[in-house]
Amino acid sequence: MNASPSHRPHPAEWTETQSLLPSAERDLPAGRHQFHKEQMMAQIHEDLHTSSRTSATSPVAPVKRSNPFLRRTVLLPAAAFALAGAVAGGLALTGGGTDGGRTALATGPALTTTIGAADAKGAPQLLDRISLAAADTSTPTPHKGQYIYIASKVADSYIKTVGGKSEAVSDELHSRQVWNSLDGRDGWLIEAGQTSDEGITLKSDTPFSGAYNALAALPTDPDALLRRIYRASDANRDPEVPRDQAAFVAIGDLLFESYPPAEVGAALYKAAAKIPGVVSVNDAVDATGRHGVAIARENDGERTEWIFDKKTLRFLGERIVVVKATAGNPLKVGTVTHTSAITERAVVDAAKQVPGQAS
Question: How far apart are CA 208 and CA 66, in angstroms?
Fold first, then answer.
């Protein structure tokens, strides 16, 4: 979400994660570990709890520091996942082994794209428009006992090493369905090639930090929200990860497989506008081929892009593109190391219930 001796870890890898990763004859997908957010976001929620202990209205309970052994985007969205048991049971949740489902998904050459033009001056205005659109979004308010359902399509490109020979390959674009309870302590995941057809549980005592209740407790003042993110980042990030990049990817994680209240979503976009190095991109394509505009930030030769519909400014998905050759990244410029597309977000009454289906 490990690495062979010929491939140095990506700069955004957490050092404690490296020690947990199993060895395998497959190099890390470039950028795959760029989004380890759990320690950061757990700290944010801990800070929020600490600052509101005297408030009788605070819905946030202390959040334990979770195991950072997580996958990003293809990664399991639940900080609450009982990872140790899952790994012991043989589930290749990080895509680390050649026999754990990832190789079976590799269907061809690495995904490539035309790189859109970036505009640093255009980002604040675009994010302001996106924030206004998010604030005007009318979505059902979930109630206790319900679940947030997110359906998406995802794929990755990476370097695979077999018998001493390395090549750039891509996953087959595949479906992913996630259910999370509002408190982030229960859920279910079904992902083609990663889980069985029935899926796996996300139940745990440690809540998912992107859960609805946790998001609803975040500050809606963009400056206060960004201060929380930076403070948590400074306390937990790998020293090689620039703090501005850590803040950007933390916000991106909260936008993908989540269902933030409208005012929180708007605040996250306004906070992103205050991060140095954020740019707008005139054209980007999500995993299902939908073209849009993007908000992006480059780090270590890779550009992380949040993609939005050009007319409605609705969040479509995310991709990571190699935009500059670097010594530590063997993938060519134009390679899409990760692509995703949100196909449905909904509130349902039970885990494993599909929208429109009776509970």
Answer: 9
Q: How far apart are CA 84 and CA 349, in angstroms?
A: 29
CB 77 within 8 A of CB 41: no
Secondary structure (DSSP) of 119-183: ETTTHHHHHHHHHHHHHT---PPP-TT-EEEEEEEEEEEEEEEETTEEEEEEEPPEEEEEEEETT
- DSSP track, 48-79: HHHHTTT-TT--PPP-PPPP----SSSS---T
Cα–Cα distance measured from residue 222 to residue 131, given in angstroms and rounded to the nearest whole number: 11
Q: What is the DSSP letter of 241?
A: S
Residue pair 333/115 in contact (Cβ under 8 Å)? The answer is yes
Helix runs in the chain, H state only: 15-18, 38-51, 83-88, 102-105, 123-135, 212-216, 222-236, 243-256, 262-272
The CB density around residue 290, as the number of other CB atoms within 10 Å, is: 14
Output the pLDDT for position 14: 28
Q: Residue 267 corresponds to which tokens in the numbers above? A: 């605040």
What is the pLDDT, as a whole number, of residue 193? 87
pLDDT < 70 regions, the chain: 1-106, 359
| Distance set, CA 233 to CA 21, 305, 339, 346 (Å) | 22, 20, 25, 30
Measuring CA to CA, how many Å separate 1 from each of 10, 37, 102, 186?
10, 12, 12, 22
pTM above threshold 0.90: no
* The pLDDT of residue 105: 60
